[in-house]
Amino acid sequence: MPAIAIIGAQWGDEGKGKATDLLGSSVDYVVKFNGGNNAGHTVVVGDQKYALHLLPSGILTPGCTPVIGNGVVVDLDVLFEEIDGLEARGVDTSALVVSASAHVIADYNRQVDKVTERFLGSRKIGTTGRGIGPTYADKMNRIGIRVQDLFDEKILRQKVEGALELKSQVLTKIYNRRAPEADEIVEQLVRHADRLRPMVADTGLLLNQALDRGQVVLLEAGQATLLDVDHGTYPFVTSSSATAGGACTGSGIPPMRLDQVIGIVKAYTTRVGEGPFPTELFDDSGEHLRKVGAEFGTTTGRPRRCGWYDAVIARYAARVNGVTDFVLTKLDVLTGLEQVPVCVAYDVNGARHDEMPVNQTDFHHAVPIYEYLPGWWEDISHCRTFADLPQNAQDYVRAVEGMSGARISAVGVGPDRDATVVVHPLI
């Protein structure tokens, strides 16, 4: 049985939880392999809405083992706050497994994140201020703290003191902020050790053994392709690998075991934070998409920037990730529009670009070239087969599919868990 990656194919918030739900009881493990609590999934089950920030969406699927992989950075306060919140609502979280090699966000990482953004001013990246980037920087600088370090206080203290040799200088001498003491950080971290210990495992071994047994492992990305630190709109990106390649390094599953890559795209485009966005709308159309689509961040509450569907980005994501299937979400948000623009290429200083410009400057100045497709007025939230969709909605899906580099296997027609049109089975 396969390992399957679910990847955001735009700038995030595409509705990756919807695809996870589609696979349902077929999935034995759901693995979060990158990011931290800087992004979230909203999952609707019946009349209940769950906002997940750090936990994999599989936490809501009975019989599924949710896994936080080695590529994730973990804020332990947030982890247990989220677990307690779900338990209070009757969700069983006892199956959760956390990688011993995942890195831990320390308080000084949050401090550095916030003061750095303020210091950058107009050149800010638009981070969430949750310490994600500085924690990944510590990981690459080899001064990071891992989950397993919490179980050896002597090692933990040595690592904290080593990290603070640098952080203290930065916070006090550059940013004029009080640096925390090593005792503070150690105390904040070790108080979670006893509760965390039963959850911790060698998750790479666990997942490979599951595949050997013929079980299905779903690898779930945080953020998305255009936010990937290597393949995104750098420097306005996240600090981790949110593409299919990151699914392997962030989970310990080798590339040859990855059989399917499902890319998630909205029927329009959104992003949060700073950075270029060719199809962004600054008029009533953008406000309409934001209002009807409820485009506010799951984790931050920030209003999302909204624009029309960008087929250039979709083709790029299909290529970078090896997308085998797209899931097109939020088609219902486009209902009631007389016509729906789709970006098919860019104009950069008079030259047409059918693929992503290689230079950041060119992408920043890209002007979308649109094709206009006829809209529809019918309510599609009840549709469950492709034939149920109005003809113009079917034509929109087929047109977008032809532009995007992979087949569209499912279409989201509403926020409910079952509000999906399945065109081709995903597994």
End-to-end separation: 10 Å
Number of helices: 13
Number of structural units classed as domains: 3
Radius of gyration: 22 Å
CATH class of the largest domain: Alpha Beta
Biggest sheet: strands, sense, closure?
A: 10 strands, mixed
Q: Would you kindly provide a written description of the structure presented here, covering whatever features stand out?
A:
- 31% of the residues lie in helices and 21% in strands.
- The protein is an alpha/beta fold and 427 residues long.
- The chain has 3 domains: 159 residues, Adenylosuccinate Synthetase, subunit A, domain 1 (Adenylosuccinate Synthetase, Chain A, domain 1); 92 residues, Orthogonal Bundle (Adenylosuccinate Synthetase, subunit A, domain 2); 159 residues, Alpha-Beta Complex (Adenylosuccinate Synthetase, Chain A, domain 3), CATH 3.90.170.10.
- The strands form 5 sheets. A 10-stranded mixed sheet has the order 9-7-5-2-10-1-11-15-19-20, with helices on both faces. Strands 14, 16, 17 and 18 form a 4-stranded mixed sheet that branches.
